[in-house]
Specification:
It is built from 19 helices and no strands. By secondary structure, it is an all-alpha fold.
Amino acid sequence: MQETGSRALVAKIVDATPGTHIAIIGLSLSLYASESTRMSSFQDAQPGSLASAFPGIVAIAILIAFLLVYHAKPTFRLHRHMTVGFVIAGALAGSALLATSVTTVPPPDELVFLSRCVRRTCELLLMLCWAEVLLPLGARPLAVVLALSLLALSGVNALSALLKEGGAYTMLALVPFLSVACLYWFKDRLQMIDHYQPDRGIEACGPSGIDQSLMTDSPSRASTALIFLLPLACYSFVFGNVHFSWVPNQDRAITSLSIQLAAAFGTMLSSLLILALVTHFWGRRKLELYNPLLLPLLVLTLYLTDLLGGSLSFLYVAPLNIVQKLALFLMWIVPFLIPHKRSPLIAWGIALILYQTGKVLSTALSGTSNAQLYTLAAIGFITVLIAGNIVGIILDHSRQKYAPNGSTHSDPHEMAQKTTRKGIASQVCGDIAKEYRLTRREEEILVLLSEGMTAAAIAEALVVSTSTAKSHMRNIYAKLDVHTQSELLLLIHHYES
């Protein structure tokens, strides 16, 4: 950790969220599973084509199907059945080994193609399972967990680069299972303390996990999409341009080792930069400057890619991994930056789809015989990124400038009254919780009940099942000796007066 402030923040979040170390290890292994096959020990990757991009298209289609299910049934969660998690891990490990031609007899091309579709799909589903568990923590704790996971990932990358081929294949097979095991271990640790949110002193999160410090001034969805969503597809497309410049240079010897160690070093630097960003540059307005600061590093990477090559690939692989991991950080934080009424999981899924779409387009165009066309496409994506940021920032600031007279904001006096009422209700519920010895989760649900929310709405807001919400409500009613929500509201009103 670079600064004392970063160490203090990490310590506070780790103390407030049990099992953080498990989550860090599990998420790092999930990230490793999604990028490990790029190493020369596993396969000889070459510039792609439309056919090689098809597995990514299949994975995106399946992810969209899951998001539609989440939208139709907000309480549905993929990871809730342990069998499903380990089936995903088994399919990911088996398909990855098959796609890398680890078998003595080369499998048919059709089977290899199918295995690649399964692998790309399972990579996204495993990441989706982790998002289901981590998003309720809130923006800042999630950012810290991701930063530390990238730090662990750099160590795993460096270790796997030093392994012989047999050891690398063994790691490739075990990593998905270890990641899923950490997922359920971490989930059980959270449930043991009956609440998902970390200490409220870290950040003020609403029921849906939205960090209020990232949602100030009621930003519009259009400006947020231009500033934070659109760049994801642009970044990932440009990554592919650089990716297919260094992967063919691997020789399973010194050049490969230097490339993988450079990737590990870049990942380590990105984790330290994220920790510094979370500690010292946290807030929506500061994150709006994220892309203008990241863009020069991306341009530098492209310049080094064109200038260097062959045995010097490691010199641009390090900055490439810094930009790539910082874009990954942006993808995980986007759900807390976009105004939404439902679970942030859907916003996260949209961000992941855009990120993967850029990779698919890059794979499809990288094998074109016209190299200039690919270069022009990369320049076009960078131009779109810059233009989108400029337009988004202008829209955002214009919205704030004219908000008092517009229809997009409520009257400031009315908003202040609502905030005051909510603050009083929250304080009263806190007093009641202390007097009747309610748990933190029960106190959280008591606040939502005081706002008139039903069991179904509470379940959706807290990302739990309706039966779980009803169970907590029964416990609250029993402890407070009330029988209906109306009686509960009367009791709260009595305490307010």
